[in-house]
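To: structure subgroup
Subject: Chain for Friday's discussion

All,

I'm putting the inputs and outputs inline so they're searchable in the archive.
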Amino acid sequence: MKTILNIIWLVLSGFWLFLGYMLAGVLMCITIIGIPFGIAAFRIGVYALWPFGYTAVDRRDAGAPSCAGNVIWLVLAGWWLALGHIVTGIAQCVTIIGIPLGLANFKLIPLSLMPFGKEIVPTDQPFASR
């Protein structure tokens, strides 16, 4: 079932969200200071491309730098990426078939706002840490 949902997701919204995250990542990587933010954007972009079967969990070793990074991320890129998820999620929830896709968009909003201190793991093992 998750493969079917991922394929529908890819066609309807996943590719465009992926491109948005890649654009944010490239813009962040222009400066040396922004490289960690670009890496976070690329990581979430891959997750936004194929979200079913994966989940985001808190990292136990995240500390104050990830909190500061989240504040900077929120100002620079997080708010407009979250806005893209909100608009896409509402549009997908209009149809009955699109409701699971819209809910997946809403699931991605907290991650798009604050990506540092999170890890993306398979749904089979949500408490496994690398």
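Points worth raising on Friday:
The longest helix spans residues 64-92.
The chain has a mean pLDDT of 88.

D.
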